[in-house]
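User: Hey, quick favor. My workstation is busy. Could you predict this chain's structure for me?
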Amino acid sequence: MERTIQKRFPVGDGSWVTVDVYGEPDAPGLVVVPGAMSDALGWRAVATAVGAWPSVAVVNRRGRAPSGPMTAAYSLRTEVADLGVVLDRLGGARTLFGWSYGGLIALLTADERPLRQVIAYEPVIRPFGLDVLPDLKAADEAADRDAAVEIVHRRIAGLDEAVVDALRADPEVWGALRGLAAPVYAEMAALYGEPAPGSLARRADRVDLIVGGTNRGTAPYGTSFDDVARRVPRAGVHELPGQGHMAHLQAPAELARLLEALAAAG
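Assistant: No problem, here it is.
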């Protein structure tokens, strides 16, 4: 389906959130919550490939254009409150789907409000990223977006030096990554703003967790996935074969098919 409209919702602290809606703009459907180093545009290929819901609404979380600023009081609670505003203004959701940091936001939201179905792809939770937090802080204080992109891609994602160099060689791609890196320290630090919850998604009727086949059981994404899965023992666990953390960019059609299969199962 094609994008129908972009909506803008005020969320507090003088900030706002935009939402790209595909399909029927007033019909509750799938709501997508991207994670760190990602925005609504990065999920366009998945949104256009999904047809199991009458609409797909992709949240462009605060801190990335054209949404508003992070604000000084930013925390995971901020994200949950923002998403609550979006869900209320959209008229709810049949399914809430979050990726990475967005997966944690989705699961936390399902602690606070009843939801029919929550799906999370490789959600992260503390101690994810703890080893790089001081260096991300230094990069943030220096407004060194190049360093922040390098830290995320080399030291967290574990990309080969040649891959990162190829990204840097493309001015358009690297410029987009620098923009997405602006909120990454605040997002990573938010994981440590309060103790990790003992359980997640307690008010969801159904929870499905997805792990990429190449990450299963391996640090950092697979082990963080396991940390989350232990907090949702009733969740269905599913594997996307042959894929890693960036399946929405590298295999959007395959990810869309899995989401549709989970919708049918729910």
